[in-house]
Write a structure and sequence with these properties.
By secondary structure, this protein is an alpha/beta fold. It contains 15 helices and 15 strands. The strands form four sheets. A seven-stranded mixed β-sheet has the order 10-9-8-11-12-15-14, sandwiched between helices. A four-stranded antiparallel β-sheet has the order 4-5-6-13, with no helix packed on it. Strands 1-2 form a two-stranded antiparallel sheet. The radius of gyration is 19 Å and the shape is globular.
Length: 340
């Protein structure tokens, strides 16, 4: 697929472009999700000391840089939702430390359905189907085997797996959310509730995908080690994750919804994710970005709430989808890596 075809495909599932003159937040149910963040606050606020707006020490664990393991060279960037966001001076990785203990996060993920409701929205589903078909085409181009088993880690209700199945893949998932698991069982999709469960099954895969999961992981390096055990040699690992060097993250910084502190705890760039993958025996074969967030940036540069439904602001001619993706400024980073 040449660059022009890729750009056309990316624009077809970019909410800022598809819904430029309409209320993207309301149409896709994101406005309801943002209201539901009050419930999220109620869950997490009990862990925060109101005097200094930082997590109580008894609820957190300090951690080293998830890329280079450095512990003593972190520069604090800002505090948000009780969490210190820092930048490793050794490798450039941005991450949260200390981080809430993993048991609290797992409890939240198992029972919170607010974002799952967005994923179930009909308009969001149509955008996602186009995005999934785009990525599956590229994954197939990188897979060298005639076998086509694919595992989606954090598969939610299984829409990606549905699309993959329609495109000839044998599909499997990993999920921990209780409502999502019930939906997977109802649709007869084979799933496990942990990667360890996949390993125990001795099932092997030509491709493993992770959509919007890697930024949540407590120990991302350890997860890569586990995934290497279920991928065949030469198999492909695909990740969709927030891009710390996106246009929206650079401009909005701590006001960006990318930075959460409670659930989003890892913020990779092209450079840092490549370093981590290499460290764990994966070779990056391609990276690219999707999702311009032009509406978000335009709102903010016009002194409005970046996530408001403002329609009147024209997009800045300085920023076009072509320029954004040529420079790897899209808000989501897509990574395709081969198991060595």
């Amino acid at each position: 697929m040449d660059d022009k075809k890729r750009l056309k495909a990316k624009n077809s599932f970019d909410g800022s472009i598809v819904f430029q003159k309409r209320d993207f937040e309301k149409i896709t149910g994101r406005n309801v999700h943002r209201k539901n963040l009050i419930k999220t606050d109620l869950y997490f606020n009990k862990f925060i000391n109101p005097r200094n707006q930082e997590f109580y020490k008894k609820y957190v664990n300090k951690r080293a840089c998830p890329v280079c393991d450095s512990e003593d060279h972190n520069a604090k960037l800002f505090n948000k939702n009780g969490a210190s966001h820092v930048k490793c001076q050794a490798c450039g990785m941005v991450f949260v430390t200390p981080v809430l203990k993993e048991s609290f996060l797992i409890e939240f993920y198992q029972n919170n359905n607010s974002w799952l409701n967005v994923l179930g929205n009909q308009y969001q589903r149509e955008l996602d189907k186009k995005k999934y078909k785009y990525v599956l085409n590229l994954i197939k181009g990188h897979v060298k085997s005639s076998k086509i088993n694919i595992l989606d880690v954090g598969c939610a209700y299984g829409l990606f797996l549905d699309v993959a199945m329609q495109n000839g893949w044998n599909v499997f998932g990993v999920e921990i959310n209780k409502d999502a698991i019930r939906e997977l069982a109802k649709n007869n999709i084979c799933y496990w509730d942990s990667i360890e469960g996949v390993i125990s099954s001795q099932k092997k895969f030509e491709a493993v995908t992770m959509w919007d999961i890697f930024e949540h992981l407590y120990h991302p390096g350890k997860i890569l080690e586990l995934l290497a055990k279920v991928l065949r040699k030469g198999g492909l690992l695909f990740m969709n994750l927030p891009n710390i060097l996106s246009l929206s993250s650079r401009i909005l910084q701590e006001k960006s919804s990318t930075f959460d502190g409670r659930c989003h705890i890892n913020f990779f760039s092209d450079k840092t994710i490549t370093m981590l993958l290499k460290k764990h025996k994966f070779r990056v074969v391609e990276t690219e970005t999707i999702v311009t967030e032009l509406k978000t940036v335009s709102n903010y540069l016009n002194f409005d709430d970046p996530y408001s439904p403002v329609k009147k602001h024209p997009y800045f001619h300085l920023f076009t989808p072509e320029i954004i993706h040529q420079n790897r400024w899209g808000s989501r980073l897509l990574v395709y890596a081969e198991k060595i």
